[in-house]
Write a structure and sequence with these properties.
2 domains; elongated; 13% strand; Nucleoside Triphosphate Pyrophosphohydrolase; 15 helices; Endonuclease III, domain 1; alpha+beta; binds iron/sulfur cluster; 45% helix
Length: 361
């Protein structure tokens, strides 16, 4: 055994031992079912475990297997997803389920390369499912794993650059024991999530403190290197809420953005905050009733500032004119809660709309 391979073996065994003592009990760790693992990995992208867990449980209760997901109506899938954000994940999940059911006759791929062919599955998810369920030796590289590898082995390449992925991939491949790729991958992710955390990790109590490059050189807070800067964008939305006979007008969000397929009120986008002060003219003679304050809603790359203007439509003729003009759908208040819509609209409804009309939820 070379010095390198004996260190790799020590590292893997120490890590797995740490994992067995410290891991959180999570339902997707109790299964080898590729459907359940796949669902959990998609839900947990950009989502904390405590936030994703109830969604995972609810999703599997509603769609217990790939067939039920493939055959579901898209709006049902989106309504279960409501609040998680990144709705393209839900839509792709369902497209992937249809692929498995209709193209692969209900059989899941059993390899990393096979999973990469499934809609919405990238390198990370393919590695997770193929290693957890089919014991393929392939690394999962998420933010936690990049951080652990960078600090432990002093890798200073920018993790935001795709070209540097190979360095981390190769390092992880050296470390993964061929007989336990599933446990190793779970362990290194959990180690990053619980022990080698982004800010102020407790290095004094770390099992690797004597081997860790970053701790020994006192550069823990400098690693990993991540240079990419997010450019945040502010947007200003003026929503027109038309109310008639316990019904409301909504439009389906067109394709090509994160809210694709969700329903929202007719919207005029403005180019600055002050423009939200000016009351819009309704398309018909519908009297204005009230307006909300400006609500701020923070997305990953955007800050949305929105004001909602509520109009009471008086006649059936006006109502029909508005439906036509906005290419809108009529939604009864009784089903508004279950209607798939951006969380921003739910905030407005709960804080302004329902109280104004004394609707008790
Ligand atoms: S010593 Fe600190 S920086 Fe190094 S692996 Fe442990 S927790 Fe991470």
């Amino acid at each position: 055994m070379t010095e390198n391979s004996s260190f790799n073996s020590f590292f893997a065994q120490t890590l797995i031992h740490w994992y067995e003592r410290n891991k959180r009990e999570l339902p997707w760790r109790e299964t080898k079912d590729p459907y359940k693992i796949w669902i959990s990995e998609i839900i947990l992208q950009q989502t904390r475990v405590d936030q994703g867990l109830p969604y995972y449980i609810r999703f599997l209760k509603t769609f217990p297997n790939v067939k039920t997901l493939a055959e579901a109506e898209e709006k049902t899938v989106l309504s279960i997803w409501q609040g998680l954000g990144y709705y393209s994940r839900a839509r792709n999940l369902q497209k992937g389920a249809k692929q498995v059911v209709y193209d692969y006759k209900g059989k899941f791929p059993t390899s990393y390369d096979g999973w990469l062919n499934i809609k919405g599955v990238g390198s990370y998810t393919a590695a997770a499912v193929s290693s957890f369920c089919f014991l393929e030796k392939v690394p999962v590289l998420d933010g936690n794993v990049f951080r652990v590898l960078s600090r432990l082995f002093g890798i200073t390449e920018d993790i935001a650059q795709a070209k540097n992925r190979k360095t981390f991939w190769n390092k992880a491949m050296e470390l993964i024991p061929a007989n336990q790729p599933d446990i190793f991958n779970q362990a290194i992710m959990e180690f990053g999530a619980l022990q080698c955390v982004p800010k102020s990790p407790d290095c004094e109590r770390c099992v690797f403190k004597t081997q860790c490059f970053a701790y020994q050189k006192d550069v823990v807070s400098d690693l990993p290197v991540k240079i990419k800067k997010l450019v945040r964008r502010s947007r200003f939305f003026q929503y027109h809420v038309y109310y008639y006979n316990k019904q409301i007008l909504m439009r389906r969000r067109p394709s090509g953005d994160i809210w694709e397929g969700l329903l929202e009120f007719p919207l005029v986008e403005k180019d600055h905050l002050e423009a939200l002060e000016k009351k819009p003219k309704p398309a018909t003679a519908s009297p204005f009733i009230f307006q909300s304050d400006v609500l701020k809603h923070v997305l990953s790359h955007q800050d949305l500032y929105s004001r909602f203007y509520v109009f009471q439509v008086k006649t059936k003729t006006d109502w029909n004119t508005l439906i036509k003009k906005h290419d809108a759908e009529v939604v009864a208040l009784t089903v508004l809660d279950e209607t798939p819509k951006p969380v921003l609209l739910t905030k407005f409804l709960n804080a302004y709309f329902y109280p104004y009309f004394s609707i008790h939820k």
